[in-house]
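Notes from the pairing session

We agreed to fold both candidates in a single pass and log them together. This is the raw record for the first candidate, unedited. Please don't reformat it; downstream parsing expects exactly this layout.

Candidate A
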Amino acid sequence: MHELIASLPGDSRAAARHLNRECVCLATDHQALQRALEAGGGLDYPSLRQSHPYLFSDTVVFVSEVCLRQMADFIAAMETVVALPAYQEAVLAWAPEIARHDPGHPGVFLGYDFHLDPAGPRLIEINTNAGGGLLNTHLARAQQDCCGPLADFLGRPFRHPDPEAAFVAMFREEWRLARGDQPLTRVAIVDTDPASQYLAPEFELFRQLFVTAGIDACIADPSELSWDGVRLQHARGPVDLVYNRLTDFALEEAAHAHLKAAYLAGAALLTPHPRAHALYADKRNLVLLSDPDWLTAAGVAPRTREQLLAAIPRTLPVTAAAGETFWQTRRQWFFKPAAGFGSRAAYRGDKLTKRVFEEILAGNYIAQALVPPSERRLQVGGELTDLKLDLRNYVYRGRVQLVAARLYQGQTTNFRTPGGGFAAVLEVPEGRQEQS
């Protein structure tokens, strides 16, 4: 290990690439992770490992201090763009009507997902209700003492000194912005058939976190909630705040009509909400954000334009008129539904069949210039394997709370890859290598 440290390049980006290729140790302390996940009494770690064998990777991902700073600076710059009247007018023009309702709070858990290429981090997409934040907090803590001298050299994996406290404070801030000094009494963590969701274990962790913070909490399907015209109700009593994990971002489904009514009436705080999705996560927004002429016309500051154009791959709307051009150049593009989530119905151009491409032309798709992901080498079943990786920044109000990685094979992240899953991120500091 000391020899590996001594061989690192002086540039932190090159050093991180070197470590991701050469340091193949398995770093996750499963006993520590088990203690963390079972501490509240609601999770059984052996059962979780059986039902979710590829939720957590056994390794870590090394990321340079420079790249972490570039991602954080980009995220802060995005906040200045989202605040511009010209930007809001443009993206709300194609958003659902409900997105024009401003509830007065920004929404929790934005997820900024990046690939890393030699020039730096490249934004792949922004998500609302980004999952995995609390799971990754526990995972990161289970890495602290697992890498011997390399861990001491690199430091700790957290981007915030106390992520759990930051997460609770985030929800309390949402409540304060909307309700001032009124007490926050009850939170409902809401998703369709929550027990069947892949990240259902995290729902239980959040329930425990709220209860520990003195806030009553329940996990509920929308059918377990009712709207009486005054309050949103659950069997436990009135619900003050809904932690929204639904993927019906505009609350258009009939099963969510009561949530929509309570939200629009201001009777229950919904976070994240439809406006947040429209402002940040609609993939059509990337068409504007990667267009230098539009950014200039919208009044985006020169330095911010430079940051956006360096980080966001060129993105174009997929139209029937441009169909033949896209088909001929398909290997250069990644095709995504504008309102999609979780990599559903997203396709690398070089994997497309003509039949699927015809479906793309008939749908509401964007094409993003292909940015291949970087890789992490690790041992799987005694053999060296290269897995793709992306980085997720968990963000509130333009500030990064935590950075985590996802390792996978195939076109997109999938939690079905041996050796893959969530992985803790360790920062490779700039300049410290030269002092070793």
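Candidate B (folded immediately after A)
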Amino acid sequence: MTTKTPFIAIFVLMAAMLIVPGCEALEEAVEPENDVDAQNELTGKRVAILITEGFHDAETLDPKEYLADRGASVTVIGPEVATVGAYNSDVEVDIEKAVADVSIDDFDALVIPGGQSPDNLRQYDEVVDFARDFFNTGKPVAAICHGPQVLVTAGVLEQRTATCFGDMSYELKEAGAEYVDEELVIDGNLITSRVPDDLPVFSEAIADVLKN
């Protein structure tokens, strides 16, 4: 008996060592399924990103890529079909469709990035009208940094709670909105954030609203 005991102990130890890697392999095999679920969670959802010359690069591309990676169909719209440049880098983005050539029924959500683009956008009556009509459908409208300037001009922020880039907070207040300095503010169908550092929660909030 005493001579066999070490062999039994070694056998048990080897069996335990085999079981542990097996569990890890099982966990690794499950993870890709979860990734596939994430990639498809917004399939069938259509999102418009509204920009023109002077857009902020990250505030445009981060939500665009985040939503597209989850299966959403993302279209960049603007005053006219053109290639426009960011104000803060050499990045250029193609405006795929003019606002005049799309309908609010074409999209499930509208995203308005910041930079100098929003102030340029609100010079176009057709853009302001589109933003107003889209907002009034109750579909999600997400604006970050200076993005709410378009909604200020559209006259849809009265009695709404929102945030924005701090230096333009007076515009929200003059438009009748309650300004709060928080990374993410959701009031009904309105989603707002302040600065590029808020992009992770901003993009996630858009996806969550679309899923639900």
